[in-house]
Amino acid sequence: MTTTTDHPEHSPTGETRRDFITLVAGAMGTVAAAVTVWPFLDSLNPAADTVAAGAPIDIDISHVEPGQQITVLWRSRPVHILNRTPAMLKLLQEPKDLNLLSDPNSEVEQQPPYATNWHRSIKPEFFVFVGICTHLGCIPEFQPKPDSVQPGWIGGYFCPCHGSKYDLAARVYSGVPAPYNMPVPPYNFIAPTIVRIGENPPNIAWDFSSIVQI
């Protein structure tokens, strides 16, 4: 008498197992493909270390209203872009303001040569600078309203940590802990309302590392 034994691959259990193995193999193939493709896709994006090292960034300032300030990050540092009003610019030249400042003529190299002027910028109205206090690296507050910090305050930047004060060109006041004006990074306008931070204007070579203090 002959006994017939079903082979596992022909049984319902065998079919289920074979289907499962096929599905797993397919899934593993999909994962392997994704692993292969992802580095390629990721390589199309700027590397974080490249950005942190100082890759230039382009900022559209067309939406920045007069008297308004925006902040972006460059080299992991806050860079403020302030659209100064005519009234703000007038204050920067007032003898009353200049007499309060430690370095009103920007004689200490805290800015590129094209920003060594009374407004510390390429265009007088648009001021671009690194918003870090030169005392201990705190972030000063934007206080543009007169008398907002103290009576007689004409508007500028105030560091609440230790009381350092700066005007609307980030020039430091005399008699405060901060020793220098806040620095201006390399930048230029690649279009009327596009600022490229991290790159000098054409035919100008200036290294941000040459500033006296961040």
Write a concise synopsis of the structure shown.
The protein is built from four helices and nine strands. It has helices at 12-42, 48-52, 86-91, 95-98, and strands at residues 57-60, 69-74, 77-83, 126-130, 141-143, 156-158, 165-166, 187-191, 194-197.
Could you walk me through the main structural features you see in this protein, from its secondary elements to its overall organization?
The chain is α+β, with helices and mostly antiparallel strands. 21% of the residues lie in helices and 18% in strands. The protein has four helices and nine strands; from the N terminus they run ααβββααββββββ. The protein has a three-stranded antiparallel beta sheet with strand order 1-9-8, with no helix packed on it. Strand 8 and strand 9 form a beta hairpin. The N terminus is likely disordered.
Topology overview:
Blueprint: H1 12-42, H2 48-52, E1 57-60, E2 69-74, E3 77-83, H3 86-91, H4 95-98, E4 126-130, E5 141-143, E6 156-158, E7 165-166, E8 187-191, E9 194-197
Antiparallel strand pairs: 1-9, 2-3, 3-4, 5-6, 6-7, 8-9
List keywords for this structure.
3-stranded antiparallel sheet; alpha+beta; globular; 9 strands; 214 residues; 4 helices
Q: What's the mean pLDDT score?
A: 83
For the largest beta-sheet, the strand count, sense and barrel status come to: 3 strands, antiparallel
**Number of helical regions:** 4
Strand content: 15-25%
Order of helices and strands: HHEEEHHEEEEEE
- General shape: globular
Low-confidence stretches: 1-18, 20-46
Number of strands: 9
Give the fraction of residues assigned to helices.
10-25%
Work out the radius of gyration: 30 Å
Q: What strand order characterises the main sheet?
A: 1-9-8
- What would you call the structural class? alpha+beta
Tell me the distance between the termini: 96 Å
